[in-house]
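Table 4 source record.
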Amino acid sequence: MKITKFAQSCILLETKGKRILVDPGNIQFEESLLDEHWKDIDILLVTHKHGDHIHVPALKRIMTEKTKFYTSQEVKDAYPEISPEIVKEGDLIELDDIKIEVTKAVHGFLPHLKGGKEINENIGFIIDDGEKRYYFTSDSICFDNDYKCDVVFVPVCNHGLVMGSFEAAAFSKKLGVSLVIPVHYDNPSYPVSLDKVREEFSKLDLNLKVLGIGESLKVLD
């Protein structure tokens, strides 16, 4: 398994001969991504409708005949020009050797999200390649669950919208993970202290790996 992180919450997973792209958004987007990284995508997953998770002009170029695209009904309603397969919490997607569980996610609320920006249907994904389980929480605050995974991609920016470093560490610990990769800290409007993030995860003896934009990591099976 190879993991590559891009801005905000976008992750490319390469496993079992598949290229899986999650939440390609508009923050720090560059056209070169489409030629160098966001290409030959087998599975495309989008958690919710905010632009930092779905950049429609890029998505139109990412999609090919082989690309399987899954997202929520709310995303489809927000962008009628796209043609995804609709999934919801509790669904199971099976594609060759890969299983994808659609999970609960709870987006935080601030008054400025009123007027069409609020998220009423948010989903996460657990990708199981038969060797390890990779959990994308989406932009979520803490909630009770019985999920288990090996690797979690968890937001850490707080600001009332998602988990902060303290909550994200506690949430991750309960999952029984062997590796945490923090996401959702690249928006300058919502600054994050990565030193504080490292401190909170260290307190719970969690293996935290902060990836730079475009940086890759190989995870052994």
